[in-house]
Amino acid sequence: MERPGRQLLRLLLASWAALCLFPLFWMFFTSFVRPEKITAGSLTLATSLDDFSLENYRALFAHASMGRWFINSVLVCAVITLLHLLFDSLAGYAFAKKKFRGRSLVFGLIVATMMIPGQVLMVPLFILLSRMGLVDTLTAVVLPALAGPFGIFMMRQHIKSIPDELLDAARIDGCSEARIFFSIILPLSAPMLATLGIFVFVTHWNAYLWPLIVLYSNEVYTLPVGLATLQGKHTVNYGLLMAGASLAALPMLVAFICFSRAFVKGLTAGAVKG
Fold first, then answer.
1. Angle at the Cα of 167 (from 163 to 170), degrees rounded to 5?
2. Residues 211-239: tens digit of each pLDDT
3. Which of 147, 180, 198, 274 has the fewest CB within 10 Å, making it most exposed?
């Protein structure tokens, strides 16, 4: 039988988890309730089964651009996540295992950029992309997010812990630098790649301000920007918004589950089997 202290700890953790998950549950719950029930302000957990319907989701998918917004978000986040992981790991490998003049200085400058608020860079970035003719395209959303100082720092710190003897043995066997990177560095960095992938995907899936600035046309909106246009000037259809938010949350949950499995697998995989 468990000690009372451990039982109390489990109870506290369960209570905290329930408290954190309740807003997510309420969002899904509200999305299936009839709009008039929500408007009446009498929505409770004891809502009758007659008040549940798919009306909010039907109204959401009846919107002509909903599918396009969803595809735009999936495309943008997939490209950003894959290229972000690739470029961050390449830079991390160079800073961790390659010796060149000014390595510490360049790495320090990259890390120092994390102290600069992202909002400060939006004006010069917008001017640059405007002169390149990329405003109001998905490229304007993807291009500034292909790498980040935080990801480079994470990958550099992880790759630095990989034994140099392992890489030297690969070079003796005739492996090129590209083969070493893709066949040794990336597999051994699976835990960090999974963690960074979750962070990057969730961040850009929820991104609102930058896409709002550079996207003007309804056809190129991402999901957060598109859902914001569904709100009226004087009224808010909460059922419709909750249905949209629920739909937007599903890919994040799927991505988290998939990357979590890779994270656990990476932690249990051995680099060298003796």
1. 140
2. 999 999 888 999 888 888 877 655 677 78
3. 274
Dihedral of CA atoms 234, 239, 244, 248 in degrees, nearest 10, equals: 120
Evaluate whether 109 touches 149 at the Cβ level (below 8 Å).
no
User: Tokens 């003007």 identify what position?
Assistant: 216
Average pLDDT over residues 252-260: 74
* Angle, CA of 219, 224 and 227, to the nearest 5°: 75
User: Is 123 within 8 Å of 219 (Cβ atoms)?
Assistant: no
Dihedral-angle region of residue 272 (phi above 0 means left; psi in -120 to 50 means alpha; beta otherwise): beta
Taking phi over 0 as left and psi of -120 to 50 as alpha, with beta for the rest, 102 belongs to left
Q: Rounded to the nearest 5°, which phi and psi values hold at 52?
A: -95, 140
Instruction: Evaluate if residue 40 carries a pLDDT over 60.
Output: no
Number of other residues whose CB lies within 10 A of the CB of residue 215: 21
Number of other residues whose CB lies within 10 A of the CB of residue 118: 10
Neighbouring CB atoms inside 10 A of 28's CB total 14
Cα separation of 148 and 139, whole Å? 17
* Residues 166, 271 contacting (CB under 8 angstroms): yes
Contact 140, 215 (CB under 8 A): yes
Q: How far apart are CA 100 and CA 181, in angstroms?
A: 18
Q: pLDDT tens for residues 84-102? A: 999 999 999 999 998 888 8
- Return phi, psi of residue 231, to 5°: -80, 135
